Amino acid sequence: MILLTGGGTGGHLFPALAVAGELGRRGHGVFYLGALGGLEARLLPEAGLPHALIPAGKLDRAAFRPREALGLLRGLWAARRVLREVAPRAVLSTGGYAGFPGAFLAELKGIPVLLHEQNARLGLANRLLLPRARGLALSLPLPLPPGLGQKARRTGYPVREERHPKAEAKRRLGFDPGKPLLLVLGGSQGSLELNERLPPRLKALGLPVLHQVGERWVERYRHLEGERYRVAGFLDAPLAMSAADLLLGRAGAGTLAEAAYHRLPALLFPLPPSLDGGAQAANARAYQEAGGAELADWEGLEAQVERLLADPEPYRKGMARLSPEGAAGRIADWLEEFL
Fold first, then answer.
1. Might you name a Gene Ontology BP term for this protein (predicted)?
2. Which residue, 135, 178, 193, 235, has fewest beta-carbon neighbours within 10 Å?
3. Are residues 143 and 171 located together in one domain of the fold?
4. In 3-state terms, what secondary structure has residue 196?
5. What single-letter DSSP state applies at residue 316?
């Protein structure tokens, strides 16, 4: 049995689900340990994976928060029971506060733990777990101390490896195959800033737009709907990215990995470092340096969109350099080394 843990947000959950699917195809038993209240509470039952949900206090670099510390202690106690019942031979933690309790206790019990880091900056949970972990799977290159760097391999970020012909994908989504399509993504939960600021700017261009506003914001932004502007709470990423010609979005690791798989040029609006410790800013720099994306310029946004649409090929090649094809298989191979 292999235990997968991590979650809270789609960025930590979706790569673990991709690896779970690969392990299942290889005949391995898989059990998922997630957090109460995270996205996994809804998606794990739909995926049909055996799982348990436990409390998980959010780790914070900046401050000690008693309520979160209590949640962490409760999570450790609950994870102890799960580890005893499941008795995994190896653990994959995809990070975040949801992935810490199970991986931490597994390390103490001598169970091999493989960490996966989605961002171009090491998260706090993985930073705490890395000294005892057997390995660190990286989505993007990132600097590590020499002793810990020996544990790392670049595997990529596991995504659903599913593409559709562009014209067919546009038709399925209700768009004209002959016109370029802009895709707006603010992450799995949407982005209030992008929801507010982008529609008037993009509507002025007169181009078709597909905008994922987040499920909690759908009714608030339903008024944006029109012949060329479509709003959705949550989109099927392979279909939407197959159809799109340009992505405008945050710089979350999952969104960028999927864009790279689909060779989709991107204009990025990373979260301020004060909100995520600089992870999205680091991701945006990595994709910009690879030539697949640009940081969005609010002052000249319309001209920037038109320029990328006029000559997308260099950006497609840049995205291809960071494509995560085969990542789930590489991580599964590594886990099998521990069995």
1. cell wall organization
2. 178
3. no
4. helix
5. H
Q: Which residues contact 178 (CB under 8 A, 6 or more apart)?
A: none
Say whether both 223 and 87 belong to one domain. Answer: no
User: Within this chain, do residues 7 and 140 fall inside the same structural domain, yes or no?
Assistant: yes
> Is 323 known as a binding-site position?
no
Residue numbers of the domain that contains 74: 2-158+325-336
Q: What is the pLDDT of residues 130-170, one digit of tens each?
A: 999 999 999 998 888 777 888 999 999 999 899 999 999 99
47 with 125, same domain? Answer: yes
Q: Is 188 annotated as a binding residue?
A: yes
What is the three-class DSSP state of 13?
helix
Q: Are residues 33 and 148 in the same domain?
A: yes
CATH number of the domain to which 268 belongs:
3.40.50.2000
* Amino acid found at 202: L
Is the same domain home to 10 and 42? Answer: yes
- The answer to the question of whether 255 is labelled as a binding residue is no
For every residue of 239-299, which 3-state class applies, written as one string?
A: HHHHHCCEEEECCCHHHHHHHHHCCCCEEECCCCHHHHCCHHHHHHHHHHHHCCEEECCCC
The pLDDT tens digits of the residues spanning 280-312 come to 999 999 999 999 999 999 999 999 999 999 999
Band of the pLDDT at 238, cuts 50, 70, 90?
Answer: very high
Number of domains within the chain = 2
Question: pTM of the predicted model, to two decimals?
Answer: 0.86
Confidence of residue 67 (pLDDT cuts 50, 70, 90): low
Contact 329, 22 (CB under 8 A): yes
The answer on 111 and 75 residing in a single domain is yes
